[in-house]
Specification:
Strand content: 15-25%
Helix content: 25-40%
CATH superfamily: Phosphatidylinositol (PI) phosphodiesterase
CATH class: Alpha Beta
Bound molecules: 2-acetamido-2-deoxy-beta-D-glucopyranose
CATH architecture: Alpha-Beta Barrel
Shape: globular
CATH topology: TIM Barrel
Strand order of the largest sheet: 1-11-10-9-8-7-4-2-3
Oligomer: single chain
Structural class: alpha/beta
Order of helices and strands: HEHEEHEHHEEEHEEHEHEH
Number of strands: 11
Number of domains: 1
Radius of gyration: 18 Å
Largest sheet: 9 strands, mixed
């Protein structure tokens, strides 16, 4: 136990070179979470289904693929807490200095799924590990939780304190505000995304990245091709979270891009 604590203390001061890579549908990897962390990829995504009869948030691509032993807690929240508190080993630490972005894609009804997700985060919240917006101040935690899919924006905006954030539509940052008298910003949406098929060309993508940065928001485009030239186009644009399934391929592309 002591040795774990010592390791944790050492790790927590280590800042890794974070890659601008997001592990799309991370739970479909051979080893969810660890495949990403082993490559210092600090953004992962879980599709979540709330099944009220079971009182469980399952992680699966479709409702037909639900496996009752695979929950948000078992696959992500438990291991993440263990890595933060030093009881679970990880090649890359998770800490305020090396935060993890956890995208929770609400597959079931937004308003119904919202409270169970907040409840599931309670242990991380109680440990002070979640990025939190309270009293007008955004405080970085070891884990930033961003809701996507059916996540209800109104509930996110109404929350005080707020530790479940929103994935905004990067195309609508100027045209559709998060609420009356509100502007988009990282205290509501640390991330803004869109299906890349909605983007006309590279020039528009570059402009959307700049727009997001003007709001202090990070960008992500999904449903992008899996190729080095595509990834390089996003790296060049300064797109913050390049959405990928081939984690080794995209990591190698990033290393080559950085070295060039
Ligand atoms: C991650 O790295 C550790 C330490 O190098 C290794 O033991 C483990 O098998 C790796 N896991 C995956 C999923 O690559
Ligand atoms: C469900 O998940 C558990 C834990 O990963 C695994 O051992 C089991 O084989 C899975 N069941 C099915 C039917 O895939
Ligand atoms: C550390 O994390 C593990 C794994 O989730 C958990 O079981 C344990 O209660 C945590 N301990 C502390 C002190 O937070």
């Amino acid at each position: 136990m002591l040795s774990f604590c010592v390791v944790a203390a050492l790790l927590s001061t280590t800042v890794v070179a974070v890659k601008p890579i997001h592990s799309h549908n991370d739970y479909t990897r051979a080893v969810p979470l660890w495949d990403a962390l082993n490559l210092s990829i600090m953004s992962v995504e879980a599709d979540v289904w709330w099944v009220p009869g079971d009182g469980k948030l399952y992680v699966a691509h479709t409702s037909g693929e639900i496996n009752k032993s695979i929950t948000l807690q078992s696959l992500y929240l438990g291991p993440i807490l263990g890595i933060i508190n030093g009881t679970v080993a990880s090649a890359t630490p998770i800490s305020v200095a090396n935060p993890l972005q956890l995208l929770i894609d609400f597959k079931t009804d937004g308003p119904t799924t919202y409270q169970p997700v907040l409840d599931a985060l309670q242990t991380l919240r109680a440990g002070g590990h979640l990025t939190t917006y309270a009293n007008g101040v955004l405080t970085q935690g070891a884990v930033t939780v961003v809701g996507t899919g059916n996540t209800p924006l109104a509930s996110v905006v109404a929350a005080e304190p707020r530790d479940l954030f929103f994935d905004a539509n990067i195309i609508q940052l100027y045209s559709t505000k998060p609420g009356v008298g509100l502007e988009w910003g990282p205290e509501i949406a640390p991330l803004a995304s869109v299906d890349y098929s909605s983007v006309s060309n590279t020039a528009q993508m570059q402009e959307l990245v700049r727009n997001a940065h003007d709001f202090g928001i990070r960008s992500r485009f999904w449903d992008t091709a899996s190729s080095v030239s595509t990834w390089d186009t996003f790296f060049s644009a300064g797109s913050d979270w390049v959405n990928a399934d081939d984690l080794t391929g995209v990591s190698n592309a990033w290393a080559a891009f950085e070295a060039a």
